[in-house]
C-alpha cells in the first residue's frame, strides 16, 4: 500500500498538479506557442530557400544547400540548440541582445528548416512537368514559373506534411530550457522542471505532458484526416435534379 501511495505521490500528486496548472496556462502555454510560431516562420523561410537551392541547376547553389540539410538533419536537436543558442552569444554575435527567445527560435527554426526543405522539394518536384512547360511556353522565365506556378501548387500539396512538422516544432520547444530562461520567459517544460525540482515530485512534468498531448493529439488526427482527404480527392457534391419546365 505504501508503494502504491509513493507512486501516486511521485507522478499524480493532485494538489501539486492543480497548483502548477495556472502557471502552465498563464505563462508556459503562451511562451510555448510564441516560440512555436517564431521558429515555424523561420523554418518556412529557410525551408523554401533551401528547397529552391536543392533544385538548382548550379552546383554552387545546390551543394551548399545539400550540405546544410544533411548536417542539420544529422545532428541531435539538443546539440544544435547548444551550438546555435549558446554559441552565437559566446562568439560575440549578439544578434538578439539578451532576448533568449530570439536565439531559441533561431536555433529551432534553422533545424526545422532543414527538414522542411526536403518536404518542400518533394512538393515542388511533384508538380507535373506539363504544367511547367506550359508556363514556360507562355514566356515565363524559370524564376517566375517557380514563383507563380511551382511554389503555390507544391506548397498546397505539402500542407499536411508541414502541419505534421509544426507538431514537431511544438515538442522541440521543450529543449529551450537548456538556454536558461528567466521567470516570465519559461515555456511549459521549464516551468514543470523547476516545480518538480522544488517539490521532489514528477507530477508537474506529468501535467506538462498532458498539455502537450492536448495540443498535439488533435493536431495529429487533423493532419491525418487532411492528408487522407487530399490523397483521395474531395468528393464532388451531387448536382440537384433539374426540374422539368412546365
Number of domains: 1
Q: Averaging pLDDT over every residue, what do you get?
A: 81
How many strand elements? 0
Shape: elongated
Distance between the termini: 84 Å
User: Could you tell me the strand content as a percent range?
Assistant: under 5%
Oligomer: single chain
For the biggest sheet, the summary is: none
CATH architect. name: Orthogonal Bundle
Helix content: over 70%
Q: According to CATH, what is the topology?
A: MetI-like fold
The CATH homologous superfamily is termed MetI-like
Tally of contiguous helical segments: 10
The radius of gyration computed from the alpha-carbon positions, rounded to a whole number of angstroms, is 23 Å
Low-pLDDT segments, ≥5 res: 235-246
Structure description:
The chain has 246 residues and is mainly α. The protein has one domain (2-232): MetI-like fold (Orthogonal Bundle). The protein contains ten helices and no strands. It has helices spanning 2-11, 14-54, 59-74, 77-90, 100-125, 129-137, 142-157, 159-172, 188-199, 203-232. Helix 2 packs antiparallel against helix 9 (188-199), helix 5 (100-125) packs antiparallel against helix 8 and helix 8 (159-172) packs antiparallel against helix 10. The longest helix has 41 residues, at 14-54. The protein starts with a helix and ends in a 14-residue tail after the last helix.
Amino acid at each position: 500500500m505504501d508503494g502504491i501511495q509513493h507512486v501516486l505521490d511521485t507522478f499524480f500528486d493532485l494538489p501539486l498538479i492543480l497548483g502548477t496548472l495556472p502557471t502552465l496556462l498563464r505563462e508556459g502555454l503562451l511562451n510555448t506557442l510564441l516560440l512555436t510560431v517564431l521558429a515555424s516562420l523561420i523554418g518556412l523561410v529557410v525551408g523554401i530557400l533551401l528547397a529552391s537551392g536543392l533544385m538548382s541547376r548550379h552546383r554552387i547553389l545546390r551543394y551548399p544547400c545539400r550540405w546544410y540539410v544533411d548536417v542539420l538533419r544529422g545532428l541531435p536537436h539538443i546539440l544544435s540548440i547548444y551550438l546555435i543558442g549558446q554559441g552565437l552569444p559566446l562568439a560575440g554575435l549578439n544578434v538578439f541582445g539578451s532576448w533568449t527567445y530570439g536565439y531559441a527560435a533561431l536555433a529551432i527554426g534553422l533545424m526545422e528548416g532543414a527538414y522542411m526543405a526536403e518536404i518542400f522539394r518533394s512538393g515542388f518536384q511533384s508538380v507535373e512537368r506539363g504544367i511547367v512547360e506550359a508556363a514556360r511556353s507562355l514566356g515565363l522565365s524559370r524564376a517566375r514559373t517557380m514563383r507563380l506556378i511551382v511554389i503555390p501548387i507544391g506548397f498546397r500539396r505539402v500542407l499536411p506534411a508541414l502541419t505534421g512538422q509544426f507538431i514537431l516544432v511544438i515538442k522541440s520547444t521543450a529543449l529551450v530550457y537548456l538556454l536558461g530562461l528567466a521567470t516570465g520567459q519559461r515555456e511549459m517544460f521549464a516551468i514543470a522542471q523547476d516545480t518538480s525540482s522544488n517539490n521532489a515530485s514528477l507530477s508537474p512534468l506529468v501535467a506538462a505532458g498532458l498539455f502537450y498531448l492536448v495540443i498535439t493529439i488533435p493536431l495529429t488526427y487533423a493532419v491525418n484526416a487532411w492528408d487522407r482527404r487530399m490523397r483521395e480527392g474531395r468528393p464532388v457534391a451531387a448536382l440537384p435534379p433539374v426540374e422539368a419546365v412546365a
